[in-house]
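During the second year of the project, the team shifted from modelling isolated chains to modelling whole assemblies. The rationale, set out in the original proposal, was that interfaces cannot be judged from single-chain predictions alone. As a representative example for this report, we include one of the complexes processed in the last quarter. Its constituent sequences, exactly as entered into the pipeline, are reproduced here:
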Amino acid sequence: MTIPVITIDGPTASGKGTVAARVAQTLGFALLDSGALYRLTALSALEAGTDLGDEPALAKLASGLQVVFDGERILLAGREVSDAIRAETVGVAASKIATLLAVRAALVDFQHSFRQAPGLVADGRDMGTVIFPDAQLKVFLTASVEARAERRYKQLIGKGFPANMAALLQDLRERDARDTERALAPLKPAEGAHLLETSVLSVDQAVAQVLAWYRAVGH
Ligand code: CDP
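Output from the structure prediction step:
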């Protein structure tokens, strides 16, 4: 029997992490926050002083990640880094190393290993297009750049990080461009993906829509 997968892809700060976590919780499914893997690799590189263009060294860091996902906590080699990987510097570095083939390839098997019964909700950029092309339901979340900047601002302030709205808007636009224009696994809706525009939707409404689509495909 195939283990069901729901993929939730979308641009930075579109709220996919929150929606994915809630959908997974409701269905009792496992959760894959694929962006966290790129962030963990980036954090490891920044801490080790690895050049962000050194593809073989970065791929080695990615394939050697000692990571444990324990609910909301993320442990890297036994150390809690749940908040550290959310820093904007780490996000920017993650989006840079995510353009490298060897880094992406090093993370494929690990991502597939999250597909376990009774099911998986996977969020990222290429969950529906590359990693789980046979997913039962594919969702592509969008939101205006202003709505996303506001969400990221609140998220950063809430975690005690400094944040500046003008800088965030520029950062988001640059990250969007990097994610959509890169040659490998660019950000785009998978074929057959349901589009969900969340600028004016609450988290509850977005979650309810994803669950309704999932029921509609026969689950
Ligand atoms: O929170 P935010 O949406 O900004 O980022 P994230 O989902 O935590 O992912 C961090 C970075 O990893 C993104 O900027 C993407 O460039 C990259 N990424 C990717 O290339 N492929 C994925 N499946 C997930 C993330």
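The CA atoms of residues 59 and 103 lie 4 Å apart. Residues 12-13, 34-35, 38-39, 91, 94-95, 98, 124-126, 175, 179 surround cytidine-5'-diphosphate (CB under 6 Å).
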